[in-house]
Amino acid sequence: MKGNLTAYRVMATIVGVLLVVLCLVGLPLHYGYVVSDAAWLAQPAIPGMDDTAGAGWRIGADISRYLGVAHGWLYLIFLITAYLLSRKARWDIGFTVVTLLCGTVPLLSFWAEHKATRRVRAEWPELV
Predict the structure, then answer these.
(1) Are 103 and 78 in contact (CB under 8 A)?
(2) What span, in angstroms and rounded, lies between the C-alpha atoms of 116 and 86?
(3) Is the pLDDT assigned to residue 97 strictly greater than 90?
(4) pLDDT single digits (tens) 25-72
(5) For residue 14, is pLDDT > 80?
(6) What is the Cα 100 distance to its own chain's centre?
(7) How far apart, in whole angstroms, are the C-alpha atoms of residue 88 and residue 108?
(8) H helix runs in the chain, sequence order
(9) What is the rounded distance in angstroms from the CA atom of residue 29 to the CA atom of residue 13?
(10) Which of 5, 20, 123, 2 is nearest to 71 (CA)?
């Protein structure tokens, strides 16, 4: 049980951090920040606009491309670790589904990890 909880906590933290960076830095820069001098209001954020895009757009595009893929793969690992912990800890289906979905909303995985850890430690004090 302790190994399952540790794996879940690590994956929830990693997925949460990547999602926050992706959603609060990468995507706004990629889709909302096209700067070429001061004419950013006149230029739409179109993917592939490297010639006229500013450095912010390129940084956002790289963050979106690489962190998006990393988050996707790590989210699958998060789902597996959360599911294995839920079966080992004998959680009801509702708590399990909420815990699994919390990795899709920025900052929510941190709250779910806290709730899950507290629940496991309360229900299984001898195993943790």
Answers:
(1) yes
(2) 9
(3) yes
(4) 887 777 765 544 444 444 555 555 555 556 677 777 788 888 888 888
(5) yes
(6) 12
(7) 23
(8) 2-21, 27-32, 55-89, 93-101, 108-123
(9) 23
(10) 20
Distance of CA 12 to the CA centre of its chain: 8
Tell me the C-alpha distance between 41 and 8, whole Å: 44
Q: Where are the domains of the chain?
A: 2-123
The proportion of the chain whose per-residue pLDDT surpasses 90, expressed as a percent, equals: 29
Fill in the DSSP letter of residue 38: T
DSSP secondary-structure letter at 104? G
Over residues 3-18, mean pLDDT: 90
> Which tokens in the block code for residue 30?
């990629």
Q: Which residue has the tokens 């004419």?
A: 39
Task: Check if the beta carbon of residue 18 is closer than 8 Å to that of residue 71.
Answer: yes
